[in-house]
Specification:
The protein is an all-beta fold. The protein is built from no helices and ten strands. The chain has one domain: Immunoglobulins (Immunoglobulin-like), CATH 2.60.40.10. Strands 5, 6, 8, 9 and 10 form a five-stranded antiparallel sheet that branches. Strands 3-4-7 form a three-stranded antiparallel sheet, with no helix packed on it. Strands 1-2 form a two-stranded antiparallel sheet. The radius of gyration is 16 Å and the shape is globular. The N and C termini lie far apart (about 45 Å).
Length: about 130
C-alpha cells in the first residue's frame, strides 16, 4: 500500500512546544509482522560513557542510527553507523546525564524501510 503523507514533527520540552521539522514523503507501509532485525540491544554505563550495544539478524541493512531522548518520545539522532556485515555493534555515548535517558536504534534497510529496536532507559551515576 502506498501513501502520501505530510508530517509535522513536534517536541515538547519544559512546557513549550516547538516544531522541529516537517516532511512530505511517498512511502510504503509494511503491514507484515516485524522481521526481527535486532537479536539483542542493551545500554550500560561504562566509566564516564554509556555503551550502547546491539546485534543484527539481517543482511538487508544499509546503516544504523543511534537515537537518544530525554522523554522517550522525541528522539534525536546521535550517531550513524554503516552496516559492515558484522552482527555485533557498539557505540560509546560520552554525553551522560544524571537524568533518565532513552535510547533506541533505527535499522535502515536497502529498500528504504526503517525498523526500530525497543527503547532502553538508563540513568547514569555520577554525571
Amino acid at each position: 500500500m502506498k501513501i502520501l503523507l505530510s508530517i509535522l514533527f513536534y517536541c515538547t520540552m519544559a512546557g513549550t512546544t516547538a516544531t522541529v521539522g516537517s516532511h512530505i514523503e511517498d512511502f510504503e507501509v509494511n503491514t507484515n509482522a516485524s522481521t526481527g532485525v535486532f537479536k539483542a540491544f542493551g545500554v550500560a554505563q561504562k566509566g564516564k560513557t554509556v555503551a550502547v550495544t546491539w546485534a543484527a539478524a539481517s543482511d538487508d541493512i544499509t546503516h544504523f542510527i543511534v537515537e537518544r531522548s530525554a522523554d522517550g518520545q522525541c528522539f534525536k539522532p546521535v550517531m550513524t553507523m554503516s552496516y559492515n556485515n558484522a552482527n555485533a555493534f557498539k557505540y560509546l555515548d560520552g554525553q551522560t546525564s544524571p537524568y533518565l535517558v532513552h535510547y533506541r536504534i533505527a535499522a535502515v534497510k536497502k529498500a528504504g524501510l526503517v525498523e526500530y529496536s525497543k527503547t532502553k532507559k538508563l540513568r547514569s551515576a555520577g554525571s
